[in-house]
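thought: fold this chain, then report.
action: predict
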Amino acid sequence: MSVVVVDCSVTVAWLFKDEHDVLAMCTLQAVVEGEGAAPPLWSCEVANAILVAERRGRLTPDDRDEAIRNVTAVPVRVMGPPLTGSVHDLVGFARDYRLTAYDAEYLRLALVMGLPLATLDSELRRAAEEAGVPLFA
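observation:
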């Protein structure tokens, strides 16, 4: 079974038809056939993306409920507490790779678990390459 770390950018592309992308849809297929992994902040980021889309009129309440059903049906395992261990460690790791703390958590999970990372974020892709983390393609 194949496992891939998924970030919010890829997940949101699964939920919104106008954001469907070849990489995102291939990642979805790989996760459904195997498993996805994400740090704890993934749930908050995805929930926030759904809320913002609804507030901006991009989703109706029915669309919102469907998005929630769809994302919860995908086998993404949230991997325990933040992996960086402390604010100091997270700041240092994010600084070293020139990332936000949020994106650093996705990179750190992929690095620690030895898993490929699926992201549409160009800065996170750059950092993954720099860190030697394989990108899901």
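thought: worth noting. The mean pLDDT is 92.
final: tokens above.
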